[in-house]
Write a structure and sequence with these properties.
101 residues; mainly beta; three-stranded antiparallel β-sheet; two-stranded antiparallel ribbon; 7 strands; globular
């Protein structure tokens, strides 16, 4: 079981999770996964792993102040689009990385 806030979700058993040929190591900082949440399949989701909260906050704040929804950047070896949605004119509604192929 994985908990997020007060909600819980069942992840599929290991044999149902697709195995990647590339194993994570200390250099891996962008994780792309597929999962099901409350019966709905999330085809792809990306998250930063192994970076400090300060780095993420600075990254999302910088993208917010650049004023664009799509922010195409290079994070080490990864091409990433940082989506930044506004809540009104002066608040971050949501910000998250999307791995680009």
């Amino acid at each position: 079981m994985v908990g997020v806030g007060n909600e819980r979700s069942n992840l599929p058993p290991d044999e149902e999770v697709a195995k990647s040929a590339i194993q994570p190591d200390s250099e891996t900082q962008l994780l792309t996964i597929q999962f099901e949440w409350n019966g709905v399949l999330k085809s792809v989701s990306s998250t930063l792993v192994g970076v400090s909260p300060e780095f993420e906050l600075a990254l999302y704040t910088m993208c917010f102040f650049m004023g664009r929804e799509d922010n195409h950047i290079q994070l080490g070896p990864y091409s990433v689009n940082v989506k930044c949605y506004r809540l009104g004119n002066n608040r971050i509604g949501s910000a998250f990385p999307i791995a680009e192929s």
